Amino acid sequence: MDREQQIAEAEQLLGHAPVHGFVKDLFFGTYNATLANQKEEVDGDEEARLGHLLEQIGNFLETEVDPAAIDREARVPKRVVQRLFELGVMSMSIPREHGGLGFSQRAYCRVMEEIGAVDASIAVLINAHQSIGMKSLLLFGTPKQQEKGLPMLSQGRVLSTFALTEPNAGSDAAGIETRAVLNTEGTHYVLNSSG
Q1: pTM of the predicted structure, to 2 decimals
Q2: Kind and range of the H or E element at 190?
Q3: At a CB cut-off of 8 Å and minimum separation 6, what does 166 contact?
Q4: Residue 169, SS3 per DSSP
Q5: Is the pLDDT of residue 19 over 60?
Q6: Under a CB-based contact definition with an 8 Å cutoff, are residues 75 and 129 in contact?
Q7: 65 burial level (CB within 10 Å; 0-12, 13-18, 19+)
Q8: Domains contained in the chain, CATH given
Q9: pLDDT digits (tens, 9 = 90+) for 70-115
Q10: pLDDT average, residue stretch 13-41
Q11: Spatial CB neighbours of 43, under 8 Å, sequence gap ≥ 6
C-alpha cells in the first residue's frame, strides 16, 4: 500500500477536519492563546481516585524502586512491573468496563509526570504498554477484540509492545516495510517484508 493510500485511509477513519491543539500549533510556529488558556473540566471522582493512586505510587517509588539498579542492570525488574499492574498504573487508560482505571489523558499525564521524575525507564515502559501497543486496540479494535484483549492487558497477563525497528527503516514507523497481507483464501494474514 503506498503512502497516499495510507493517508487517505487514515483521514477516512479519523475525519478530514484538521485537529488542532496547543502543542501542535506550537510545533508549527503558532501560539494560540485561546487554546493555552482553556480550562478542562475536572471530574471529582477521577480526581479523588488519582490522588489515591499518586499517593500509592509515591510510596511504591520510594520503597520498592531502585533507579540506579535499573540503570546499572539495563532492565526493569519483573517484581516492579508486576507491582505496576497491581497498582493499576499499567491499566490507567483502559476503560473501567474492561478492568482499567478509565483515566483521562490529563490524569494519565499526571501519573507519568510523577513516575518520570523518579525513573524514566519505568515511565517509558508504561508509555510503551499503554500509548503504543494497546492504543491501537483502544482506538481501532472491534468490540470483540477489546472484550478479549483489554482485560488481559489490564490484569498483567500480557504486556503490549509495538514492533517498530527494521533494517531499512530504523525507528521510522512510516518507513516500515513489513505488511500483514490477507491470504487469497481470506483465512489468515501473512507477514511480508522486503527488509
Answers
A1: 0.70
A2: strand 189-192
A3: 175, 176, 177, 178, 193, 195
A4: coil
A5: no
A6: no
A7: buried
A8: 1-38 (no CATH), 43-155 (1.10.540.10), 167-195 (no CATH)
A9: 999 999 999 999 999 999 999 999 999 999 999 988 899 999 999 9
A10: 68
A11: 104
